[in-house]
Amino acid sequence: HTQVFPAAVVRVRVSDALAVREFIAAAPNSAPAHPWEFYQYNVRRSNAIGAFRALPDTRDTSCTTRRYHLTAAQLVRSRVSIIIAFHNEARSALIRTIMTLYLRTPPRHLYELILIDDCSEDIELLPALLRLQLPPFMRDFSSSATAKSSRTHTRSAPSAASPQVTIKTARNKQRSGVIASRNRGARLATGDYLLFLDSHCEVNIGWLEPLLVRAAEAAGDGVIAVSPVLDGIDAESLAYTASSNNLMGGFDWNLHFHWIPRPQSIQSLQQQQRPQHFAQNVNAKTAYLRDSGWEDKLFGEARMRRNTNTAAMAFKSPTVAGGIFMITRDWFFKLNGFNPLLETWGGESIEFSIKLWLCGGQIEIVPCSRVGHIFRKEHPFRFPNGSDSQTTYLRNSKIIAESWLDAYKYFFYASKPAAKHISVNQTDIQLSYQLKSTLNCRPFSWYLLHVFPQLKLPNDDFIAFGTLSCAELCLQITNRATNIDIDIDIVSQVHMSSCFHSDVTHWYLHRQHSQLRASSGACLNVERMPNRTNWWRRPTRPFNFRVVLQPCSDGEDVGENVGHYQKQNQRWLRRGGWLVHQQTQLCLDNPLSDVVVVSHCRFAAPTQLFRFAMELQRL
What are the C-alpha distances in Å from 462 to residues 359, 548, 606? Predict the structure, then answer.
């Protein structure tokens, strides 16, 4: 369906076309020297579209017949502060985001618009924007709640028929990133709800009312964050296309966001024919669905549960979709906002989603709310302090894992071993622990069981993983250089030490080949002590052996027979609390202080009872 706008709205757009063209043309010439690399979308096409355009109504037909009503008490607390943080955004994309908000949002709900410029190269963007003679900017911008760091502009008093909107702007003096910028915008906000939006979006008809009504309905059951369905805007053609109602936000053990299908929405191609634009839109969002085979599935709407109203019903999602969501201002700050320890960009939506679910809230996607979003394939911006996107995201992901994943963080480290070498201040991590204690948050195991069961444990590879402790000490390795027969070798000492060190060693007991791998990538082994005489008379005496760390053998780098022998010699069996070396049938033992040896297995001996942080099979 194509929306037909009132004649008055069309006249406003035509009469202000010249001002919009001048605003767009006034952008610095240095910025778009290489437009595609700078913006990662077709800025020329964006400039040609201008400040406003008609969009197809992509809602399900049942949404158009629904009436969204708030009670008198709910209306009093329905003021929405929309926060847009941006860095080096094209003028045409930003003005189109603002105009579509103004023209498609009920005036009584659009309380204030907060624009945070994260040190863009176009330093005159915000001042030029505020000088425009367009409807959103012909208002009284003054506000007693406006912070000193934000610009305050006052125009002549608007007519009584004109809706009021407060526009607050602020510019970071140095690059802070979208995370810090969104937090800054939230601190400037005074509305009842905070709604975070990107600066290259176009909201569709009736987009806000379903979000407000659903948030108000669920208020009695606790805090809720609501998110629209994100329609795709093609980065090259800027064509607006509908997205499926049945995708929700998720992530993998790398802590990378993915769109995943709603469990009850999966239908085979034989049951129903997929629309042609669906695969293109999914591919534009993420290659994850294609790689997982979901591209060849259909997410049916009319047939889902044979309920024709299901396509319009809100549904739960493990994470917010694309970081675009609405939540009450009070609860946003109860949750400490976006984690200030996260740098620039990456992982903030996953972190906020996890702590929201664990600390008493929930996330829902509302299909009757539609917002178009340009999905860019790459980051168009540089990261501050000479860092890159991968390093920044990896550091942010480590903070999330250490703060919220409990012992399941070892799955993250198994997927991203490089994260173990990134330094993180453990004192800062304590802030998350304090929040969990204050809000009585649930463990991450509850999230996996009740919210995101689709995030499967990689238990096909591991029997157990994490720190390996005996009583109050953990199995640890330290490296020292030695000179043996001229060849320089690194001998790893294995010993017991405090489990509270920040760099405590993580271990992984593999299911298939039974190797006990350290987080460094080497394997635990047992070898004969050198210079032992007459060891062959009683070869299984424990004092003939020592526990060492050696390169894990796969049988390829050494001869096939030698490799097979080494691999067999690195096998460990999990028997109750014992770790039994298969070749010698001796048990790992911690008989004294930090000493680690192997000895004959003794029933219920406390020095031979070792426990992993996460056991995936019954002992």
Answer: 30, 21, 24
